[in-house]
């Protein structure tokens, strides 16, 4: 099973995922990134912060960028 890395990217820098996760497919990795982004967004909102401009870069073991998941794309408007 391939290992995927989930690096959180903001305007001020990147938090690199040093361990990654073994998942069957890139679609599984996308689902995990969406859940991670929602968790981080929830924690930020509780602290009064807006981090919706951040993104998760999903990379493979060679650090090749495979997919970008913008935090803002992981939520929908309640209206």
Describe this structure in words.
The structure is a single chain. A hairpin with a 5-residue loop joins strand 4 (55-59) and strand 5 (65-70). Strands 1, 2, 3, 4 and 5 form a five-stranded antiparallel beta sheet that branches. Helices cover 27% and strands 30% of the residues. It has one domain. The radius of gyration is 13 Å and the shape is globular. It has 79 residues and is an alpha+beta fold. The model has no long low-confidence stretch (mean pLDDT 96). It holds the Pfam family DUF6894.
Low-confidence stretches: none
Beginning-to-end CA distance, first to last residue: 40 Å
Overall, the morphology is globular
Question: Roughly what is the average pLDDT, rounded to an integer?
Answer: 96
Give the helix tally. 1
* Radius of gyration using CA atoms only: 13 Å
Structural class: alpha+beta
Q: Please report which band the strand proportion falls in: under 5%, 5-15%, 15-25%, 25-35%, 35-45% or over 45%.
A: 25-35%
Helix content: 25-40%
From N to C, what is the helix and strand string? EEEHEE
The biggest sheet, with number of strands, parallel, antiparallel or mixed sense and barrel status, is: 5 strands, antiparallel
Number of structurally distinct domains = 1
The counted number of beta strands is 5
